[in-house]
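User: I'm curious whether this sequence folds into something compact or stays loose and floppy. Could you predict its structure so I can see for myself?
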Amino acid sequence: MRAASVVATALFFSPTAAAAPPTVSASVNVKRGAAPLGVVFTASGDATSYHWDFGDGASADGATVEHVYRAGAFSARVTAASGSGETATASIRVLSYALTVRGRSIVTWGQHLRFQGKLIPAIRGIRVGLYHVDGSRAATGLTRRGGTFRIGVPVKKPGDYQARFDGAVSNAISVRVRPALSVRFIGSGVVRRPLALVLRLLPAAAGPIRVEVRRRGKLVVAREYAAGRRARLPTARVADYRISLRTSATVEYAAARLAVRKIVFFPRLSLGSSGPSVLALNQELGRLHIALAGVDSTYGFDTRDAVVTFQKLHGLPRTGTVDGRLWRSLLAAKPPRARYAGNHIEVSKPRQVLLVVRDGLVILAGHVSTGATGNTPVGRWHVYSKVPGWLPDGMFDSSFFLRGFAIHGYPSVPFYPGSHGCVRLPVWLAPRIYTYDPPGSTIYIY
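Assistant: Here's the prediction. I'll summarize afterward.
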């Protein structure tokens, strides 16, 4: 009786042995790829049941399960359970890629076209490739924060472009090419000398080129040319040709347009000349913001002074007359540039010109003459007094900026430094400049 009691007591106080959790491991047939990504999950171990949480809100049961992922980064988790209820878990990461890209649909031949896109999931530092639809790679770029990327590529042929990474392929961007249309002239434009227009188109396959030439609004040439051909222009008389060129739009190529101008002129003009050549000359001078009394067909003193202004600005002999060299320089010239920003007047002693500047841009340029001995003061000045009309010493519409120094009109304005120290202007130009420098306005002399 006593022995049995001891045994029972021993059994009662012996601790129960704890059951071990099941062993479990997880594997997949593919860990990453293009969305929609089909994945087969397999769990192995000694558990009696397996429950899968795919990380995107979906779940399934079984040792082997299948799931299809949309684009993104996911962590799938399997929970293994034993017959006695103990559990263990294992997880595995899956990346399902998708790409989007956007860009302009029309680009001029040879120019850089920038594509912008995004990789999902948003991983930084991934190299994404940009491909032609034929499979050849055009360029690559790295993803930045947020998975965004930019890839630039020079475009010389039309077609579709796609971004690709690890099997993921973006939407296609169909790009049409606007051909590069340009021209050059063979011949100076002098009356009765050969003159031709040479047509260039890149790529040449985007042609032909429609050429229309007008003189005084009348159509004198209208036909199509292949790239590289020459279109001859009549030069029997003075003319101001307005030339328009264009290509037609196709499925692969956008339309290209170009407008150019060519003047057929008498090469030598001087004070007293008149006619279409003088009108063309004055129009070109006006285009460059060089001061004129008016844009007309008469070569008066204002045209002579404007020609001198141009010659000073471009380092040509200061003759006040026009020759072939000046015409060539004139037709290729651009408006003069200011040295300083803002609103003011600038006077350049080396070039002997005055510039009216507004918002940093030259709106008017004129011929001046500064001190013969170099005594016109250099610096930044302000107009402190203005005297309209004539003064006894011959000064006209005077704007004083330092003691007795002024910008003013004068009957004699030589093409070189010849004043007593003031800035002389032609009398016909003085009233116009007078309105641009009110009291307190800034004058730069350098």
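Summary: Residues 314 and 329 are 8 Å apart (CA to CA). The first strand starts at residue 24 and ends at 28.
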